[in-house]
UniProtKB/TrEMBL annotation:
Domain Deacetylase sirtuin-type positions: 1-161
Gene Ontology molecular functions: histone deacetylase activity, NAD-dependent; NAD+ binding
A Pfam family per the record: SIR2
Keyword Endoplasmic reticulum: no
The enzyme's E.C. designation: 2.3.1.286
Gene3D superfamilies the record matches: TPP-binding domain
Lineage top rank: taxon: Bacteria
Name of this chain's protein: protein acetyllysine N-acetyltransferase
Species whose genome carries this gene: Nannocystis pusilla
The keyword Flavoprotein belongs to this UniProt entry's keyword annotation: no
Enzyme class: transferase
Keywords on record: NAD, Transferase
SUPFAM superfamilies xrefs: DHS-like NAD/FAD-binding domain (SSF52467)
InterPro entries: DHS-like_NAD/FAD-binding_dom (IPR029035), NAD-dep_sirtuin_deacylases (IPR050134), Sirtuin (IPR003000), Ssirtuin_cat_dom (IPR026590)
């Protein structure tokens, strides 16, 4: 959602953002323009009111007001088309891994229990592919039987894995 994977160098087509992306906008009028990149859109904030200042972002097709392409709580207007395409690409890749009987490790970093959709997805994927789940989380440490949890922040956990791999 916050595009950290893309900023870290992951290719756009290798990421699933199940709750949308802060780097994309969608049309509030619903003119059917798919979500578009917000890279060229600057939104300034009025510091007195703490509200977005004019000009507000607009749909390039119909000129209607644009909004972030992010799923909010109780949000019935979120355009999930971009996320759906990402989900389909991921499903195809996971299917391919299953057909190849690839040895899979699912890393689950910092996904808490408050909104457990990412945790559940990681658990299901590891189970379905017969792979290992490594959860790295400083608080929500539960894992299914036989799986691994590193009780730490993501960077410390990943560094520990890297160090262990370097030792062979
Ligand atoms: Zn529009």
């Amino acid at each position: 959602m916050d595009a950290q994977f893309q900023r870290a160098g992951f290719h756009e087509e290798r990421v699933e953002e199940c709750h949308g992306s802060i780097l994309h906008l969608q049309c509030l009028k619903g003119c059917d323009l798919p979500p578009w990149s917000a890279a060229q859109t600057a939104v300034s904030v009025d510091v007195e009111t703490l509200r977005a200042a004019e000009p507000l972002p607009a749909c390039p097709r119909c000129g209607g007001l644009a909004r972030p392409n992010i799923l909010m709580f109780g949000d019935l207007g979120w355009d999930s088309s971009r996320a759906n395409e990402q989900r389909e690409r991921l499903a195809e890749w996971l299917e391919e891994l299953g057909q190849r009987r690839a040895r899979v490790v699912v890393l689950c970093l910092g996904a808490g229990t408050a909104i457990p959709s990412v945790r559940f997805h990681a658990e299901r994927t590891a189970r379905r592919l017969g792979g290992a789940l490594i959860r790295i989380n400083p608080r929500d440490t539960w894992v299914p039987t036989g799986q691994i949890c590193l009780e730490s922040g993501a960077l410390a956990g990943l560094s520990a894995i890297e160090a262990a791999l370097a030792q062979g």
